[in-house]
Amino acid sequence: MAGVAGKKSSLTWAVQISVALLVLLWLFPTVGLFVSSFRTADQISASGWWAALFSSEQSEVFRTLDPDEHRVLDGNGFRVDGTIFADTPLNIQAWGVSSRDIAAYQPGETAEMKGGETLTLRRDGSYTWRGSDEQLAGRGQRVFVTAQVPPEFTLDNYATILFSGSGQDNMAKAFFNTLTVTIPATIIPIVIAAFAAYALAWMEFPGRALLIAAIVGLLVVPLQLALIPLLRLHLGIGIGKGYIGAWLAHTAFGMPLAVYLLRNYMAGLPRDIIENAKVDGATDFQIFTRIIIPLSFPALASFAIFQFLWTWNDLLVAKVFLIDATGSTTVMTNQIVELLGTRGGNWEILATAAFVSIAVPLGVFFVMQRYLVRGLLAGSVK
Amino acid sequence: MLSENPALLGLATIILGVGACLGYFFLSNLVLDKVVFPARGKHAGRNINRANMVRPWLFLFPALFALGLYLAYPVFETLRLSLTDRSLGGAFVGFDNYRQMMNEAKFWEALRNNMLWLIVVPAISTSFGLLAAQLTDRLRWGNLAKSLIFMPMAISFVGASVIFKLIYDTRPADQNQIGVLNAIWLKFDGGAGSIFVLQILPTVFFLAVAGLAVFSGWGMFRDGSASLRGRSLWQMSLRVCAAVLGLWLVWASISAAVGIWFVELPYGEPQTWLTIPFWNNFFLMAVLIWIQTGFAMVILSAALRGIPEETVEAAIVDGANPFQIFFKIKVPQIMGTIVVVWTTITLTVLKVFDIVFAMTNGQWETQVLANYMYDKLFRSNDWGVGSASAIVIMLLVTPILVWNVHNARKEMR
Amino acid sequence: MTSLSLKGVSKAYGSMEVLRDIDLDIEQGELVVFVGPSGCGKSTLLRMIAGLEKITGGTLDIDNVVVNDLPPAQRGIAMVFQSYALYPHMTVYDNMAFSLKLAGKSRQEIDTAVRSAADMLQLSQYLDRLPKALSGGQRQRVAIGRAIVRDPKVFLFDEPLSNLDAALRVATRIEIAQLKESMPDSTMIYVTHDQVEAMTLATRIVVLHGGGIEQVGAPLELYERPANTFVAQFIGSPAMNLIEAKVTETGPRTSVIMADGGHATLPIPTRAEDQGNAVKLGVRPEDLSLVEGDDFLVSADVEIIEALGETTVLYFKPKSDAPALIAKLPGIHQIQRGTHLKLIAAPEKLHLFDENGVSFLYRS
Ligand SMILES: Nc1ncnc2c1ncn2[C@@H]1O[C@H](COP(=O)(O)OP(=O)(O)OP(=O)(O)O)[C@@H](O)[C@H]1O
Ligand SMILES: [Mg+2]
Fold first, then answer.
1. Of C233, C249, C283, which residue is a domain's last?
2. Chain C residue numbers touching B49 (CB-CB < 8 A)
3. Domain termination site, one of C233, C263, C285
4. Does C179 touch chain A (CB under 8 A)?
5. Mind telling me which residue stretches traverse the membrane in this protein (chain A) (predicted)?
6. Of A238, B411, B413, C357, whose CB neighbour count within 10 A is largest?
């Protein structure tokens, strides 16, 4: 269609803009989390994360040095010199001495207060405060400063979540627990399903069609049905709650999709190649390991990604089959849910924890997207 | 020591588990070929044939075992449990659990919300997906755009819940709002702009939905009445369902379009979005829509690519405009895929648990069946009612199950 | 001494019988070609010999051993598939070495076998390539090389050339003929659609039709002495003309007349009881020539003329529901559409079939 004569370019522009808007809309939530995870608790509660990307106007209140200790004689009055910035200097835009008008003066100007008392604040934060004996007494003078703050980010939240945090705030253990659940729960079903898929695709036996139909049926059986009977079973045979139960459950729950995807793919391999291998003297086992497995790599990768995402992101199976009363085997999703309950307001912790938990799947997603798409197509279009 | 260190334990399992699996397949094969039916001696040929009859079952056994024990058996066991009472030592109680469940307002709330989810999420995800697929189709940076819209697929429901909780966050009126939704909301002041965005636009939208429903219903009716005879009962009942749904949609959207003019919008007050009854459901649904749109887009985009170019070119030559090409040429050709996407999202919706659990835990009238069941199971420890609600979910899934199996069998022939 | 014999072999898929009662003996060193119309069961028969399909009736002997139940690898056969069936993830070398590796041969042995086969097929410089980096003809040679490496008793080819373009097909056909010559002791069975392949390669051709064997014989024997109308029309192109006729004289030489007054006397014996019977006279288009006067075989109006330069093919207007008559004349002829022509053929080129289509030459 691209080459059709007389095509309207205004339409192309409209398309470009709508896609851009759609993409922004879709990206916006994740970016919000991402940005928030690099802000301090104060920053997060002071302004929306979108403000963090730009330098912002920020008002702060400072107090001059204690006049009783620091005043020096100056003509017939007294004077206090100093700087309002103890550590990091701010880029002062305006300042004032009264809460009613906090931006009355430009830097370098002098504020005239009652009775000839004056205060001069310069751009670098140094000030000179002049006044009489009574005026320069008691507490220091309040100075309201409106400053331009450049965007500022910190890695502290990540340090807390990954290393230094204590108790619920430390996700390191949950991270490893999640890995411990995920990796075996991804690899084992692949092995089992691949053999079954080969049998269903390339071996002749009675009842084959029926089995395939049954697997298609099991594909949609909700997980929820399995919870009670299996929990009872696990408790009954002594597995209880723990990794073994979670691995078994994930393996079995991933099985229908695995068998279905792999069988469809394997059945599409050229028949001649497999027959030729038979003529060459390969046994079924050898055909499987030397021909089918190498040729099915795309399908294996597709399923591996699915299963990885699904087990990594899972909450329900972990809650039911894995996490016992001690909570020592908690996974990241569960810990985040608990954080949502107990630290619902601590966005720096929540956002960072959530981002740590979604970083790995996101990485996998961007690297292996091709296979994910292929698997989706094979799994649902057929 | 091993059990102390989860990483080591995991590694050991990977090696043991995978090793055991491979070992099982390898050794059972070996035993079959060398011991049970050796390919030697007088009966070599016969033995080989027998071994080949057993071998498929060796290959299938672990998978079938897992499927049977973890998926097939629980369906029946849950059914049985739903008819027994745990506290009575598993005594048969008939439909008591169901009766008890029916008497709970929370159950009806969950069912109502689930229905709402079932209509809204697949509809919006699929249409957004279709829109995104079509728009990105010929774009030079279309693949990048798709990849970004697809990205939420990789994010867990829990992670997405956190992301959206940040969006829905509420601060007191005198503070800066850090949730986008409230920040935007406070920009509305009841002036002309607000009326345009919050009342006129939604009205137009709802009327458009109603119009679309009437239009497609009318189209279906016209096609249908022409060839009413010879249609199976199944198709007829499908049509009736669609008609009822369509009427409901028309009624709901028109009443929404009217209703929007009679509500007092609380301008200037930050809202706690997740506690507004009824509407909070939509805020939860947004999370799932955000995740599922990418899925719909990817699949529909592949389907759009599969449309023969010639049909589109023929339409251009016939003088169709881009909208006509999209709605009259492309969409009808990918109808099958749209149905598949719709049902797949429907299945996801029926099982949705994490989002509700993490965001509201069913409070403020946002309960859904899956979370209701979890509640019954692990909070109230009422396994009877829990099973009963699981069976309700199963019943809702069953039509899709039957349909899928039917299609698969048809394809195998 | 490798011989292969099929005794009463049949094949049924469920209740559908695809092949029945096939009897065939193949001697060592033969190149037997199976031909037949599409769907007649050529591939099925070949695959049963290979062991890829179960034999549902009868026995298959290789070297006087019944191999019905032996898996393919143990029958001493090698097969070359139409689609080449190369393992896409292995190099040419590995493709050829695969079967030997499975058989547990030593590295040395494998290497020698693979390299000598590669030399023979001029594949030496491609050994490290993957199949997808080869042309169609090269792939086909790899497939053949893979068979050679195994040093099988019997080579099986299932339409090995049909995926190649016309020029390559001719070249590869000649290569196969040379290969056969260089391995005079090996037995080959070759399935094809292509008559030219069958005629040029075969020591014997097996014509299959409707689940059975129609005729087995040397190529020219099938051409010159077809056993029935099916073989007569299947071998040769354009197909043999069959003309309704009536026997007027029997004996060592038989005379027939046709409805349009044409007549012939041919050196084929008939018996007294055939007198007056309806028969079919067969004559190949290339055996017909134009004639003037009353002494003709057939006469008809020209409907279509195809002038090919080398030959001119005439299609005559069919009489009633009889099939159209075709004549293939050498050289260029200036003939108008609609011209009424008379044609004749040498008596020894004529064929005679009874009303069941069986040749009088083979009558028991
Ligand atoms: N698995 C099967 N199940 C049922 N019928 C089959 C099967 N395989 C082949 N047939 C039938 O057996 C017959 C012979 O098939 P075969 O492949 O041997 O034909 P062929 O002579 O090789 O044809 P072609 O020249 O087209 O390759 C066909 O009618 C086919 O439909
Ligand atoms: Mg064939």
1. C233
2. 69
3. C233
4. no
5. 13-35, 181-203, 209-231, 243-262, 287-309, 349-368
6. C357
